[in-house]
């Protein structure tokens, strides 16, 4: 068992060094988080090699490999064109982004390995071996190993490369490998001079229009919508996390930390998760009344609440109560007023509601936030 696993691992690892999938992994790592790319690679390769190993030598009888490779080539070209698209309307429902990079990477690797040498290797090993599940683990780990090297390099250079250059590089990788695959597997009768010229003229026109639009947006000072929203939310949660950390009494005052049982401890946890994992929306409602409320420094709590209101005015208001900043606001309200303060998405009416509850605190917030 172990012998077949190791054999499969080393064969795939050596075969994929410097191959297109390693380069693709590198380009994905310049755009997405390392864990997203790795998880996407794992899913795509596991499904791809799983199909090969389950069907084994009968795959070619079900679907001709030439046809599979043609489909893979076409899809790679489509991926290359889509890589140059301008991201729009990414602000709304930003939490949905958590899944899209993984699916994108998984699809790319699943398609990229269709009819490729690693899939054929997996099929051959399965036909020869006695433990197909261990062969699957070995081939998948081999792909993760080579892809991991590419991801490591890509993650180190991603932040140093402009958005537009990342898009062009990513697009080029897919277009080059897709075009080469098509030239290798398409029947010769389709590779006429007229067809080749027509293909490159259409492809060049699409690339020219897409890059021209990207350059225009860059010159006009517009950022990638996805990156702009990501940077904004990251900044919000990072600043808010510092303010909430400052409220925490610490073990020297509390004794043993109660963690998520404490209202501030729980708030710290959700902000830390948001900052690290870019998970800005919580599932379901949270009953803050069940948490322990201690004798926190009210002035520090007010400062944190002012920071949230300032962010509402600076970055805009997200009315979804699942939003981590809104959850934090509710926790601070309970500490200060021992109740929720009605908030309908309007800062001025919110401050008025605070003044109704406590005129002194309301006046402080109004002066600091609205300069009244």
TrEMBL record:
Membrane disposition: Multi-pass membrane protein
Protein name (database record): GDT1 family protein
GO molecular function: metal ion transmembrane transporter activity
Membrane-crossing segments per the record: 37-55, 67-86, 98-115, 131-152, 164-184, 196-217
Pfam families xref list: GDT1
Family per similarity comment: Belongs to the GDT1 family.
Taxonomy of the source species: Bacteria, Bacillati, Bacillota, Tissierellia, Tissierellales
Any Gene Ontology CC annotation: membrane
Location in the cell: Membrane
Chief site of localization: membrane
UniProt keyword annotations, A-Z: Membrane, Transmembrane, Transmembrane helix
Keyword Membrane set for record: yes
Superkingdom of the source species: Bacteria
């Amino acid at each position: 068992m172990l012998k077949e696993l190791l054999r499969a691992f080393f064969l795939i690892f050596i075969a994929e060094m410097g191959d297109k999938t390693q380069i693709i992994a590198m380009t994905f790592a310049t755009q997405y988080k390392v864990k997203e790319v790795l998880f996407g690679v794992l899913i795509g390769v596991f499904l791809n090699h799983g199909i090969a190993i389950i069907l084994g030598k009968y795959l070619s009888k079900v679907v001709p490999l030439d046809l599979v490779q043609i489909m893979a080539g076409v899809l790679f070209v489509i991926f290359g064109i889509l890589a140059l698209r301008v991201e729009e309307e990414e602000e709304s429902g930003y939490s949905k982004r958590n899944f899209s990079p993984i699916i994108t990477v998984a699809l790319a690797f699943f398609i990229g390995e269709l009819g490729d040498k690693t899939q054929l290797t997996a099929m051959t090993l399965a036909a020869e071996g006695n433990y197909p599940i261990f062969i699957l683990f070995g081939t998948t780990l081999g792909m993760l190993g080579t892809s991991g090297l590419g991801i490591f390099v890509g993650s180190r250079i991603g932040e140093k490369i402009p958005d537009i250059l990342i898009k062009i590089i990513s697009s080029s990788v897919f277009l080059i490998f897709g075009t080469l695959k098509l030239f290798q597997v398409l029947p010769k009768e389709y590779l006429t001079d007229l067809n080749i010229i027509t293909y490159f003229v259409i492809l060049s026109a699409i690339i020219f229009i897409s890059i021209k639009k990207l350059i225009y947006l860059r010159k006009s000072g517009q950022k990638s919508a996805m990156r702009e929203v990501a940077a904004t939310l990251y900044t919000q949660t990072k600043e808010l996390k510092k303010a909430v950390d400052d409220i925490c009494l610490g073990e020297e005052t509390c004794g043993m930390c109660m963690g998520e049982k404490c209202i501030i401890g729980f708030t710290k946890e959700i902000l830390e998760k948001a900052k690290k994992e870019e998970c800005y929306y919580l599932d379901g409602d949270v009953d803050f009344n069940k948490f322990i409320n201690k004798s926190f420094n009210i002035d520090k709590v007010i400062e944190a609440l002012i920071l949230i209101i300032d962010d509402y005015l600076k970055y805009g208001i997200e009315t979804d109560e699942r939003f981590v900043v809104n959850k934090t606001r509710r926790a601070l309200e309970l500490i200060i007023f021992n109740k929720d303060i009605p908030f309908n998405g309007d800062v001025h009416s919110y401050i008025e509601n605070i003044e109704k509850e406590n005129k002194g605190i309301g006046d402080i917030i109004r002066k600091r936030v609205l300069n009244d």
